Amino acid sequence: MKKSTLVIICLLILPVAVYAIDLSFGFQAGLRTVSDSAIKDVYDNGPCYFPYAAINLFKGFTVGAGYEFGYSREGTIGLFREKTTLEVTGVQAFVGYQYSVSMVTPYVLIGFGSFSYTQTVESEAAQTVDAKKSTFFVAGGVKIYPMKNVYISAEVKYVPLKVKPIEDEVDLGGLRLMGGLGFTFGF
Amino acid sequence: MPENFKVADFFEAVFRKREVNMKRNIYLFVAAAFFISFLGSLAWAEGCAIIVNSRSMSISIIEYTCPGYLFRNFSTKVYGPFLAGSLGTPGDQLLDAAGIPDSNYVLVSNFGQHKVYRIDISDPTNPTLAGSLDLGTFGPEDIAVSPNGQFAVISNGGMVNRIAFIDLSSFSSYGLYTLTSPNGYANAVAIGEDNSTIVLCDYSNSRIIYGRVNATLSGLVSESTLPTNNYPINVSISPDGATALVACTGSSVSVFQITAPGTLNFGIVRDVKGFHDIPQSIAFNYENGDYAYVVCNTPPSSLTTLSMLQVAGPGNVSMKKERAATLFGYGGGSYYGVDAVVAPCSSFLIASNPSSSLDSRNRVTSILVDPNVYPEPRFFPTSFDETLYDAKGIALFSWNIFAPLNAALVRLTNNYIFYKEYINSLTWQANPKNLDSISKYRVYRKAKGADDSTYLQLAEVDASVFQYRDRGLKKNANYTYEIRAVNKRGLEGAPVEVSNVVVMRRAI
After folding, report:
1. Which 403-432 residues of chain B touch chain A by CB within 8 A?
2. How far is B508 from B506, CA to CA, in rounded Å?
3. Pairing of strands B504-507, B405-415
4. Which of B117, B346, B364, B428 is the 20 to 30 A CA-CA neighbour of B59?
5. pTM of the predicted structure, to 2 decimals
6. CATH code, domain with A36
7. What ipTM, to 2 d.p.?
């Protein structure tokens, strides 16, 4: 399901790209919050990075893909305060709409991501959690073009990510509050 | 019948099979023989004897295993001498020892300094002095400890008309009890299995003084006397508490029946006679009391001998074998009342030297007894070369390894967010009776309700650790645990068992 969804999105992007007007590359960095209070207590919010590529189609429509990483947190967990780590990464594809008003271009996105998460605990009694889950997400932001092909961006993204790898359901989702820099190349 | 069937082939096959079966049976027989030999070689009981070295003012410990049933091998190991310099000065004379049941203490009497020492022997390689008790003008000699370990009675070798009572829980004196029997003298003392009957040898008056210990464990009630043969010197009460035997230097053993606490009558056989030598000390076979052994001095030849009595029932005693063995003891005279022989099992005994001689050839003797050999029992004495020449009092002692106290199990839930770990957290406390003898604790586990034979060792923790967490359990897993202390000699003690989940606690 997850893989096939990504393939479909890519196939949709490919023919449209033939008629592409602009190609953008960008890098965003910011804060990733976590919704689950237990996760927050142990691992807390953390940094998040998102390099991406997007094709700006006709009439402000955009499609793109990127890779989210950087949320790799350490903490102590359980009755015996054992050392633990949690890492969440995700491959994401999205479609969006942007509307340019002078130097400012606000935009909204909807996407689909495949997230991998790994929890380790330094205890012989613990087991390593290593699993994946796919989910939709939404985002909105604004690009500001101080130069013709260069923009800075600010974005808020919300990813709902409820997982149950073993026995308990945990919400690994949360907000991403990110800012970044991008380049647009026109063809 | 098949076409290719041949009668000759059929019989050949039958015989071949029989040959194979015969070979298999031979192998099985040889394997069974080895297995039985192995079982026979196993010793079935163990303990130790405490030896008091009179002049060098020290103690030695003999660790033993009783002979196996099929192969009559046994083993002994001597530790010591220990505590020389801590138990008085040479010339004071240490005379007798007695183990305190349900503890790891022994008592030792110092006649010259009028003291009784309490010694912790939980570690046989390092006994330590755990207190001394000054009895004033009373010179302690023979010590008897009640089977329940609550009190001790001490005689002074017949030199005064008093005996000392000691509270063993606090190791303090109840004071000296003055015998009410006219001109009574306490030479040797024994306490019955009922923890109440006390029998004293009155050497000077050729009689026993007996009675029941009073409510405060400090004296006798219904104090009475019965005559013995000439000059009773040592007394022993059978393990069933029904027979008292008194070694008399008038070359006999007087026999008494204990019919009720503090009540004695003459035995069915009143005196066992026929001794060529002079009885000095007597002890029942501790295992079942079917035999008694008498250590005798032979003043003309200066040899120490051993005789064997048969105990057919309460008060029914006869000579089984006189001069059954010659011991490694030389010299006449004696320390009155000192217990000089112990018989921990029916076929094994240890004897020290009851004489006052300091002959350098003196040794403690271990004796293997084969009591059921026709026409009479066989005795195989061996000397302990490591033991000092001045060994006098001897007492049996079993090391006790007491179960840990206040064991508890708490079920914990450890939240790893994505899943939970279930933990049985065990806690316990050191048993102070074990003193400093414990080297570690072992934790065993079985499924709750399963047979005890399914217990498997789960962990071993240091003696300073009093908890263990059985981690990574399934939610519905229920177990029962045993916790056992292990002493410094590697012996495992009695278990304490826990299985009830008392508290549920959850934490992140």
Report:
1. 412, 414-421, 423
2. 7
3. parallel
4. B346
5. 0.67
6. 2.40.160.20
7. 0.86
